[in-house]
């Protein structure tokens, strides 16, 4: 359920959650801050799960610097792994559609989980995974509704895809980067896919630093009222439609 007892969309509160009004978001971020900042753990993947009322299949939203609304993001290249999990999921999940995935970073999405976590904790593989509340228009389940059976299969497939990220093989070179990896869409299995482990340099940019840097790009009403950020054209529009 996206809305809490305060009737707020909790997936628009990740930029600056209130410990009293948004305790689940606040403490989830606190755990990430503890793991990254105190323990020094390298967090490779963050993914929250949503239902989508209009689009078909199972797909993901990710974060690409080259597709960001904020100009300074484009000054740095995308991390080579930013599309890695969707590409693995394409081969491990019969319901998954890589062609339906999007990697835009929109201003209206800065307060969502995937963008806030990507920006504040420098986790290249930060995603929202959407599962259609309808069905599929591709693959073996084309023209079928998604039942509990297909959803359970999708969860198992996602776990298989994630398991390949724990590989202890050396760093992969650019020839095996996501932009060049040719994963067979028709096989829907992950056998033989080599996934390397990369070192991620954690960003020291705090939420306050980021807020001051982008303030010039945000109007006063956007800064103080996140509920007005959604529009009918938003790609991330999911279960409850426009707010």
From TrEMBL:
Required cofactor names: Zn(2+)
Task: Identify the InterPro entries for this entry.
Answer: Cytosolic_carboxypeptidase, Peptidase_M14
Q: Which GO terms describe its molecular function?
A: metallocarboxypeptidase activity; zinc ion binding
Gene3D superfamilies in UniProt: Zn peptidases
Record domain Peptidase M14: where: 1-169
GO process annotations (BP): proteolysis
Q: Catalytic residues?
A: 130 (proton donor/acceptor)
Q: Which PANTHER family does the protein's record reference?
A: CYTOSOLIC CARBOXYPEPTIDASE, CYTOSOLIC CARBOXYPEPTIDASE 1
Q: Which family is this protein grouped under? A: Belongs to the peptidase M14 family.
Q: What is this protein called?
A: Peptidase M14 domain-containing protein
